[in-house]
C-alpha cells in the first residue's frame, strides 16, 4: 500500500458526508477536480474502491463504510490535538457553529449573541437556525439545540428548558369572527400547520393533541412563516408563546384549556464538549435560558 496524506482523508470525509463531489469541493474550498484526484489517490493507496458513482451522487461501498470509521477516528484525534494547542496558546479564538431550530435561534439566541461577542471579540460564532436536526458526528455543528434528546451517538445532552405553546390568531381575525369560547369552536376555523413530510421532529405534531379532527388548510414548513401566516389572518395556529408574545397583533385563545409543553436540549459531541470555546458557548446558552423567569411560559 502506498502512502497517502491527510488531505486525502479529509477529501474522503467531505464526500462521504456531502454525497456529491461539487458540494464537498465547495465546502472544502477546493476545485472539484482536485477533490476527485485526492479520492483517486486514496483509493489507489488503499487498493479498494471507496465510492460507487451513481446518478444520485457518491455512495460508499462496503469497503468505504469500513474506512469511514477509521477516517472519523483520525479526524477526531486531529481535532483534539488542534483544539488543545489552540486553547493553550491563543485562548478563545476560532469559530463555533451552533445549530438550532429556527424559532429558538431567531427569537432567543440571536438577540443575545451581542453579550458573548462583546466579552470574546476574537471568537467567531456561526448560528445555523434551520428547521432540521443537526448531525454532530458529521460536523454539521459544534453544538446543537434540539427538541428531543438523542437516543444514540457519542454525544452529551443537557435539558435547557421546557416551553409552552398555545393557540393563536390575529387580533383582526378574532374580532371579525364569532367568539371562540371552547375547543368545539376552533373546529370551524381554518388552521395553519406543518407540511407533513417536512415535519423534522415528531414533537412538532401539535394538532392531534388539540383535536384529532383538526386538518390544516395551509401547511408551512417552518414556524416563523407559520406565525407570519397567522398574523396575516390566514387562520389559527399553534405557536410557541415566547415567539408569539413579541407580536402585539396576535391573541392567544383558550389559554386555560390548551397549553402544550415541549423541551429544548443542548447537545455536544464527546470529542469537542470540553473544547474551551465550545464549552463557553454551551455554558452561555444554558445560563441565559435559565435566567429568564416567565420567558418560556405563557
From TrEMBL:
Tagged with keyword Lipid metabolism: no
Record keywords, A-Z: DNA-binding, Transcription, Transcription regulation
InterPro entries, A to Z: LysR-type_TF_proteobact-type, LysR_HTH_N, LysR_subst-bd, WH-like_DNA-bd_sf, WH_DNA-bd_sf
GO MF terms held by the record: DNA-binding transcription factor activity; sequence-specific DNA binding
HTH lysR-type domain boundaries: 4-61
Coiled coil is among the record's keywords: no
Example GO BP: DNA-templated transcription
Pfam families given in the database record: HTH_1 (PF00126), LysR_substrate (PF03466)
Protein family per UniProt: Belongs to the LysR transcriptional regulatory family.
Name assigned to this protein: LysR family transcriptional regulator
Organism per entry: Caballeronia glathei
Amino acid at each position: 500500500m502506498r502512502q497517502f496524506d491527510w488531505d486525502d482523508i479529509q477529501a474522503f470525509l467531505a464526500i462521504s458526508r456531502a454525497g456529491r463531489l461539487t458540494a464537498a469541493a465547495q465546502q472544502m474550498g477546493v476545485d472539484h477536480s482536485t477533490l476527485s484526484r485526492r479520492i483517486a489517490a486514496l483509493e489507489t493507496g488503499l487498493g479498494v474502491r471507496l465510492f460507487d458513482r451513481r446518478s444520485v451522487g457518491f455512495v460508499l461501498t462496503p469497503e468505504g463504510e469500513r474506512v469511514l470509521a477509521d477516517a472519523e477516528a483520525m479526524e477526531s484525534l486531529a481535532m483534539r490535538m488542534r483544539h488543545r494547542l489552540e486553547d493553550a496558546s491563543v485562548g478563545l479564538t476560532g469559530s463555533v457553529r451552533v445549530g438550532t431550530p429556527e424559532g429558538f435561534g431567531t427569537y432567543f439566541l440571536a438577540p443575545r449573541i451581542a453579550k458573548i461577542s462583546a466579552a470574546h471579540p476574537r471568537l467567531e460564532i456561526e448560528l445555523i437556525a434551520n428547521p432540521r436536526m443537526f448531525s454532530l458526528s458529521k460536523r454539521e455543528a459544534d453544538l446543537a439545540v434540539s427538541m428531543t434528546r438523542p437516543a444514540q451517538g457519542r454525544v452529551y445532552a443537557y435539558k435547557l428548558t421546557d416551553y409552552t405553546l398555545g393557540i393563536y390568531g390575529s387580533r383582526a381575525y378574532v374580532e371579525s369572527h364569532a367568539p371562540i369560547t371552547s375547543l368545539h369552536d376552533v373546529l370551524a376555523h381554518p388552521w395553519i400547520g406543518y407540511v407533513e413530510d417536512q415535519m423534522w421532529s415528531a414533537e412538532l405534531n401539535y394538532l392531534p393533541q388539540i383535536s384529532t379532527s383538526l386538518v390544516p388548510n395551509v401547511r408551512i414548513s417552518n414556524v416563523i412563516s407559520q406565525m407570519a401566516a397567522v398574523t396575516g389572518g390566514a387562520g389559527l395556529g399553534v405557536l410557541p408563546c415566547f415567539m408569539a408574545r413579541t407580536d402585539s397583533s396576535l391573541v392567544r385563545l383558550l389559554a386555560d384549556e390548551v397549553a402544550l409543553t415541549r423541551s429544548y436540549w443542548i447537545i455536544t459531541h464527546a470529542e469537542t464538549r470540553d473544547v474551551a470555546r465550545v464549552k463557553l458557548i454551551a455554558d452561555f446558552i444554558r445560563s441565559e435560558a435559565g435566567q429568564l423567569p416567565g420567558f418560556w411560559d405563557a
